[in-house]
Amino acid sequence: MIQTDFIGKELLKILEKGGSIVQISRWASDLFSANCRELDENLVKVLECLLRMEDDPQFELSREELYSLAHKLIDGSEDPFKKD
């Protein structure tokens, strides 16, 4: 089973390498497709949010929001989308 902190760490790696919204979205889509039966409800929500970013600019998170999300996932936040 994929852990929340794993997704946060992987997202952080992509961001630190300068990954684009499209790269992040496709990574999330691949991860979701390969593991959809093993994901808990919170991770499904996170990955669906990330994979939708490619669909329309209104769904995009800023780099700041993506970094915040990654750190909240690493820290095990119960609601990683809750504003600080």
Describe it.
63% of the residues lie in helices and 0% in strands. It has one domain. It has helices spanning 4-16, 21-35, 41-52, 63-75. 23% of the residues are buried. The protein starts with a helix and ends in a 9-residue tail after the last helix. Helix 1 runs antiparallel to helix 4 and helix 2 (21-35) packs antiparallel against helix 3. By secondary structure, the chain is mostly helical.
Oligomer: single chain
Largest sheet: none
Mean pLDDT: 94
* Estimated helix fraction: 55-70%
Task: Provide key terms for this protein.
63% helix, globular, mainly alpha, 84 residues, single chain, 4 helices
Write a short abstract of this structure.
Helix content is 63%, strand content 0%.
